[in-house]
Fold:
Amino acid sequence: MNGTAEKLDAGRSGRGAGLVAISEAMRDAIDVLRRVAPSSCTVLVTGESGTGKEVAVRALHEMSPRRNGPLVAVNCGAIADQLVESELFGHARGAFTGALTARRGYVAAAEGGTLFLDEVGELSPAAQVKLLRLLQQREYTPIGETTPVRSNARVVGATNRDLAAEVRAGRFREDLYFRLDVVHVHLAPLRERREEIRPLALHFLETCAERTGRTDVTGFAPGVLELIEADDWPGNVRALENALERAVLLARGHEIDMDCLPARILARAAAALPEVPILTHSVASRDDRFTLPPSMGDGMVDLRAAVDALESRLIRRALEKSQNNKQRAADMLGIKRTTLLDMMKRKGLAA
Structure:
């Protein structure tokens, strides 16, 4: 592998439960989680979709004394309004039409552990009232019951909404917001912590290769990591992981080539660089430039053909300079000899 992802310890520079943190912002976030983990205080994790809120919550749970208890994750936005109270707090038999048996809710299932309320900003007003009581009194009453039930579950909420704005708009209870926001951890989007893109890409290459059975994929072809680092990743860490899993599956050899990347990334690179200098090691001179193929209309370029042509030209140039010595040519290109041979075979270049 071309380097390894930096996995930080659970101290100031922070690793928790598989959470990779390189940037100062993420180290600060993990430091807060580590410091509050021993307590049972409520924590609110915010950030855009895909920034790793659930990973952070799992890290908090794993670093806490509750690690041997259950971690119950509830997507509040995926439960119908009329079922939220029943799902969270349970119900007695006959509490409503269709309640043929009593049912424990998620709060009871999380007893002694952590209750993770994802998309907590989606809760209905009625459910917000009951959640407020749970946070204030550490007790709740299942639907149809009259006796309160004590709870020993730590509550952690997460949302990609601005809950303060939701309070001002009258869609979220202010008292509940303050009860949830005892400790606030914000996860910045990946575009604001670009120094993490490369180590995360290397980390996901390793984990995705193992998960998909493609352990033969061990690195990136020259220039690929630079394209990955240049992207804004609007889907954040989740999108990066998905892109790496796809790339690992599509890899033809031991390395991920440019044509394994999402078309969006290649399109952005093509738009930013209408002419790409060939400056790989000693393969080409300063004035040797590769010009993208003609437009296909509406300014579009056949990106895969352009990448293929660029790779073929670089390989031919390296073979010429090395007098057809495959090892020397591979060294010039910064790739393994076996990778060069695979690429030559795939492109139909004479061996």
Summary: The longest strand covers residues 154-159.
